[in-house]
Amino acid sequence: MVCSPRPFFFSTLLNHCLSLNSLKLIHAQLIKLSLCNTNTFLGNRCLDLYSKLGTIKDTLFAFDDIRHKNVFSWNIYMRVFIDFGDIKSARQVFDEMPERDVVSWNSIISGYSYNGFGYHALGVFAKMHTSGVTPSGHTYSIVLSLVPSVCHGMEIHGNMITKGVALSSVIVGNSLIDMYCKHGFVDYAFGVFLDMKQIDVISWNSLIAGCSKCGHKEIACDTFRKMRTTHYSPDAFTVSSVLTACSGFQDLPKGRQIFSLSIKSGFLSNTIVSSAVINMFSKCESVKDSFSVFDELGLWDSAVCNSMISTFTNHQLEENAMRVFVLSLKEHIKPTEFTLSCLLSCASLFLPDVHGTQLHCFVVKLGFERDPVVSSSLIDMYSKCGVCDAAKIIFDRTDIKDLVSWNSMIFGYTYNGKPEESIVLFEELLKTGPQPDEVTMNGVLLACVHGRLIDKGLSFFRSMENKYGVKPTATHLTWICEMMIHAGEVSEAMKILTTKIPNRLDGYLCKLILSCYEVQEDLELTELVAERLVKLEPMSLFAYMALVKAYEARGRWESVARVKKVMKDRNVAKVVGCSWIGVDGLFVFNENEVVHHGGEDVYSALRLLMQDIEDERSWV
């Protein structure tokens, strides 16, 4: 007589099942013995394995085969849809569940959170309170990461205290620290940290990273020093957070100390730490050290390469950035949206028709053209190249137009001599787009300056705070002053400059004021502005020539001689202008220059062309 295998035997087999084929063989045997549909435990075990090893179809079949489904069966069934990103079907399963436990609620809340529906997650959490199910520490940790304001977070914190889970769980305490730091309430985060019954390295990391992110860089470094005095050893995340803090207030000596610690602790091989080191040296204006770290590490990782490319682009070393990008491609590193955005930001500076077009093709190939960050960079690149039509096509094709895209297009029209189009686009933004910010108003006011739209510019300026909620900054006032100077209201402009923004009189405004006829008539004002320009740009010829012209008009020849002597003593000379063109390389032509790098061939070809022209004329 042959005995049938017991359920324990199949349970053991399922625990050691590692492939879909093995699972299907075991499942078939269970169906044959009618164990799968009658034994809920074995049915759930098969269902769980299908959710990890199989397809949705396999999982649905296993779920339907369970005759007596319990809450564990329904939770696995719902989790399958969440894992495949079908949150709508997951919510339908959740609503149909005959019984829900805390895992059911946590699964649907985390599903909404993971798929970017934070508002719906908070709505489900609110319903959870009325259902009679007590939230767990995991529930609170998810919800605290989604709260839109600190007031909402405080309400949840109060609810946690009444439930007795606020300070008893390390996970919940760390989530509270993150939440308070995220909204800028560092003192509350420290209060939670000090009241926690138990802390771990993540608690320290949350506090240090939170302080660093919300602008309290020195507090982050002080907290790190206190951590070193305890028995908690910093990990790679701790070191990267402190390096970010050092780069925030450009403390190079302290950054070098943390860099040495990362080498001593063996963290430098971690790509997060090495990227933070490169960024720290970059922010501290030590590009040579950034490249040394990058070169010596030899870590061809996406994050490390992005940091090095960003370093080069931020320091106007565009060719080096392109070189690193090409080398990363040879190492089979797939560029990210950040990589392409950095490169596009500098593509307009050299051979835009070649490099810019190649990068655009690369963006299309990788499917990033509709990404808001990349599309904004493309718009900015084409605008800087003077190809506004191409920029507008990309702008129109962008599905989700964020404010950066609108601002890039507005500035693109402005810088390419189309102020009217810039104003029209701004009015379209007010109707259909997001709320304008101070960058938007900078572009609009600059368009009014370039287009000599004085009345419209003043109207925008007067209504920007009440109507658009944008508080005027020094830059906005600068554009208003320029409009007034162009309109001949120099005295009003000077009043604004001297009262509201006394330290904002930059070199550009000084030259603009000195070029006005009204200022030239006022010698005292001319001398005052010229003196300011000399302090700002000691080697600029403009201030000296303005003074010479003013003194000559009044016959003050001794003053003219004195200014010219100062120019001679300071070796002030006319700045040599240049122009460049990119044809199979960059050719730069300085003013009055005959010989330059690669120029011999250019001038030889020019002489041959001139000879051919003369020959053609002689035959006419």
TrEMBL record:
The keyword Repeat applies. InterPro entries: E_motif, PPR_At4g14850-like_plant, PPR_rpt, TPR-like_helical_dom_sf. One of its GO terms (molecular function) is RNA binding. PPR repeats lie at residues 70-100, 101-135, 200-234, 402-436. SUPFAM superfamilies: TPR-like. Gene3D superfamilies: Tetratricopeptide repeat domain. It comes from the Eukaryota. GO terms for biological process: plant organ development; RNA modification. Keywords: Repeat. The keyword Repeat applies. Belongs to the PPR family. PCMP-H subfamily. This is Putative pentatricopeptide repeat-containing protein. It comes from Helianthus annuus (Common sunflower).
